[in-house]
Here is the input.
Amino acid sequence: MAQADCIIVGSGIAGLATALALRQNGLSVTIIERQSIGREASWAGGGIVCPLYGWRYPEPVMRLAALGMAAYPQFIETLGALSAIDPEYHPSGMLILDPYSQEDQPTEILDWASRHQITAELTAARRHFPHLSEREALWLPAIHNTRNPRLLQALTDAVTRAGVQLVEQTAVQNILVENKQVTGVKTAAGTLLAPRVLVTAGAWSGSFTPGLTPTTVFPVRGQMLRFDHAPANGLSTILMEDGVYLIPRCDGSVIVGSTVEHVGFDKHTTDEAIQRLHRKAIALWPNLAHAPVTHQWAGLRPSTADEIPYLGAHPEIKGLFIGTGFYRNGLAMAPAVAALMTELILSRPLSVDLSPYRVNRPVAPRT
Ligand SMILES: Cc1cc2nc3c(=O)[nH]c(=O)nc-3n(C[C@H](O)[C@H](O)[C@H](O)COP(=O)(O)OP(=O)(O)OC[C@H]3O[C@@H](n4cnc5c(N)ncnc54)[C@H](O)[C@@H]3O)c2cc1C
Here is the structure.
């Protein structure tokens, strides 16, 4: 007998947000997680609710991210009604120093912002930070950030209260299929049956999902550090230069990231990267010079060769759905992913054409 209408494999933000949406649409849902709930990329991330240098991404990435960004206020409100844990979602804004690479034109950046309804202004950095004289900058005043561990805790609380069943410390080994119809999953602890299975297993999805391989979905390490609780540091906005960002949290702590490293499933931090981030953070915001660094960590972003997620129904196996490969933008995309997966799983008309995200697309690596 089926244990649930839908089994979700993996409890990152994609799995949890979709579980909540499915449950609110009347489905019984079981999430299976190989370790503790929500402790991988979604926990490790920076929590910026917008892609970095979004105009450089392929359009399908930005489309999903923009939908997610627009849906965030409602998503946070829904969580607030179900959980007392505050995810600290707040409009810090983001200032990007020297936003141009060789190919970027100012008009291209402003067109990107207006296409996606993102308020943007090309400005002098010193208007926001007097010590950064003579620097050009892009100011995005409406960009929010949220505190990942708290968001994940709020979501876990919300799905539990909504009646989603959570099975932890249980790795899925195989997707079970009979006559091209999914029937459940096999784990070390036994078999769980369901007519629908959604794989949201992040960077690990390629190891057990039909149609994916460890080379089509793979980990990209990002290292982070945190200057703890420095209320007097005065940083109120996300500040970014050359891919390194400083994110102010509500309690005065500042998160600094990140690296982009192809080192397999290795989640260690390295002295060299942490020292580089530390130096860069103090150069950008000297008030941090005496703030203690209390945490450093790394997470594994689930990437694909073209940096476009895999999102959709399996082309040959009925009842199997896939949502992975969110790379650097999975937090921003999450409410949109949850809404689209719900439409798909409930066979409703789709509000977005999912063909750019299909599992069997030809993938050209980004240059
Ligand atoms: C350093 C860093 C900074 C980031 N900053 C941002 C940002 O500012 N904004 C943004 O939008 N995005 C950011 N990201 C990206 C974002 O965090 C990811 O895209 C997103 O978290 C992916 O979510 P997910 O649910 O797909 O995967 P994950 O959060 O990795 O969750 C997958 C889950 O599946 C479980 N799992 C794996 N295999 C199995 C199995 N066989 N059986 C059962 N469970 C399994 C894992 O244990 C894990 O809990 C950042 C990522 C990193 C690492």
Summary: The first strand starts at residue 6 and ends at 9. The CA atoms of residues 98 and 235 lie 19 Å apart. The chain is about 25% helix and 25% strand.
